[in-house]
What does this fold into?
Amino acid sequence: MVSSISSANQTITQIFLKVQKETQQASESESGSNDGYYSSSLANLMRTYGQDEDSTDDTYSTGLLQALNATESEDDGLSALTKTSDDIQTATFMDNLKAKLTELSQSGDGALKAKEMLAALDAGTLTVTDAEKGKQTTAWDSSTVDGDKTATDVTARDWSSFLRSELKRESTGGYELTESGAHVDKTTGNSASFVLVEDTYVYLTWTAAS
It folds into this structure.
């Protein structure tokens, strides 16, 4: 019996999600206990395997379904703990920044600009600013540098006013661009870009390519 349950665990886990979705709505409309819900799930699961509801084979017991459901809940909790960070001070964020730039460098109009940013990241000269949170730091590669880093505090501003004040304009009024398609930071003269990493906007600056 134990070996039978063990061999079926992986398949049941996949099917349970489907069973749970199909029976949850019906379960919520009833006033019965959790046992009723799991019994209903079990019946659907048994039919999936071609097994009659009155079968005496208890390989797929309600206890197993409850245990699997508990595992699903624990996994959801772990997913929440490992959710992508929106804090530029964390190594997790830097991992996603590098992944984003790598993706952009593969093709498209911004490929050359993304390659410049990746080179700056590797050289330790890529500056990351979160204007809304008032944080600024130098990007790092978490594969070579362990842990998180404390960012420098800067004046917090909304993105509209920040970009209007930081990006250099041409005499015609339009924003100045480099040959790679990057903007130009008004204060430093470095290349600049406004990038969305997951759900977080950041302002990136780096030494312009000669």
About this structure: The first helix runs from residue 2 to 28. The radius of gyration is 27 Å.
